[in-house]
Amino acid sequence: MNYYAKRRLKVNQFRQRSILLNWVTLNQLNFPLFQTARWSFLLIGMFYGKQRYDYLKPRAEEERRVEEAEKKIREEQEKIAKALAEASEDTILK
Amino acid sequence: MAQAVQKLVAKVPTLIGAAATYSKPRLATFWHYAKVELVPPSPAEIPQAIIGIKNIVTGVNSGRLGQTTVKDAFRNGLVCTEVMMWFYIGECIGKGGIVGYAV
């Protein structure tokens, strides 16, 4: 067998063996992996929740403030419009 | 009416006893699995987890992932789903509420 045939054989053997190994290890349940994954996801989730809460809280307060100011302006305008409407309607059913 | 309430109150201890006897074996099995799966990983087990991740990566690279059986793929999918749910549980803990952010 010449050099290149030998190299090809070696590479194929390595591929076969690595495929077999990977097959075996994915078929078995790797419990430490699940445990670390669960707890790390829990901690990451806690961090993410806290960050998102801190991000959303000032924005919600700002929005509430803006909404209140706009509501006041809107109510005043509605009052003015109602007063105008009441003054300008002319029915005899008063 | 009062007699019915008295009878109900007298039955409560038996109900509690029945609930205890019903739940004991189930609690035992739950504890049996929880001791294996839900405890935090000791520092000795973390290298195994890293090896597991490397195996998955090499499996994806070598294309061996296409050779999993449907049964294995289903089981792995369930495990991944359960692990993802822990992320959402953590998010609920971090944001201080179950439904929505309390802003």
From TrEMBL, chain A:
Its main location: mitochondrion. GO terms for biological process: proton motive force-driven ATP synthesis. It is found in: Mitochondrion inner membrane. It comes from the Eukaryota. Keywords: Acetylation, ATP synthesis, CF(0), Coiled coil, Hydrogen ion transport, Ion transport, Membrane, Mitochondrion, Mitochondrion inner membrane, Transport. GO terms for cellular component: mitochondrial inner membrane; proton-transporting ATP synthase complex. One of its GO terms (molecular function) is proton transmembrane transporter activity. The keyword Acetylation applies. It holds the Pfam family ATP-synt_E. Residues 59-86 form a coiled coil. InterPro entries: ATP_synth_F0_esu_mt. Belongs to the ATPase e subunit family. PANTHER family: ATP SYNTHASE E CHAIN, MITOCHONDRIAL, ATP SYNTHASE SUBUNIT E, MITOCHONDRIAL. Component of the ATP synthase complex composed at least of ATP5F1A/subunit alpha, ATP5F1B/subunit beta, ATP5MC1/subunit c (homooctomer), MT-ATP6/subunit a, MT-ATP8/subunit 8, ATP5ME/subunit e, ATP5MF/subunit f, ATP5MG/subunit g, ATP5MK/subunit k, ATP5MJ/subunit j, ATP5F1C/subunit gamma, ATP5F1D/subunit delta, ATP5F1E/subunit epsilon, ATP5PF/subunit F6, ATP5PB/subunit b, ATP5PD/subunit d, ATP5PO/subunit OSCP. F-type ATPases have 2 components, CF(1) - the catalytic core - and CF(0) - the membrane proton channel. CF(1) and CF(0) have multiple subunits. Subunit e, of the mitochondrial membrane ATP synthase complex (F(1)F(0) ATP synthase or Complex V) that produces ATP from ADP in the presence of a proton gradient across the membrane which is generated by electron transport complexes of the respiratory chain. ATP synthase complex consist of a soluble F(1) head domain - the catalytic core - and a membrane F(1) domain - the membrane proton channel. These two domains are linked by a central stalk rotating inside the F(1) region and a stationary peripheral stalk. This is ATP synthase F(0) complex subunit e, mitochondrial. It comes from Oncorhynchus kisutch. The lineage of its organism: Eukaryota, Metazoa, Chordata, Craniata, Vertebrata.
From TrEMBL, chain B:
GO terms for biological process: proton motive force-driven ATP synthesis. The lineage of its organism: Eukaryota, Metazoa, Chordata, Craniata, Vertebrata. It is found in: Mitochondrion membrane. Pfam families: ATP-synt_G. GO terms for molecular function: proton transmembrane transporter activity. The keyword Transport applies. This is ATP synthase subunit g. GO terms for cellular component: mitochondrial membrane; proton-transporting ATP synthase complex. Keywords: ATP synthesis, CF(0), Hydrogen ion transport, Ion transport, Membrane, Mitochondrion, Transport. The keyword ATP-binding does not apply. InterPro entries: ATP5MG_metazoa, ATP_synth_F0_gsu_mt. Belongs to the ATPase g subunit family. It comes from Oncorhynchus kisutch. Its main location: mitochondrion.
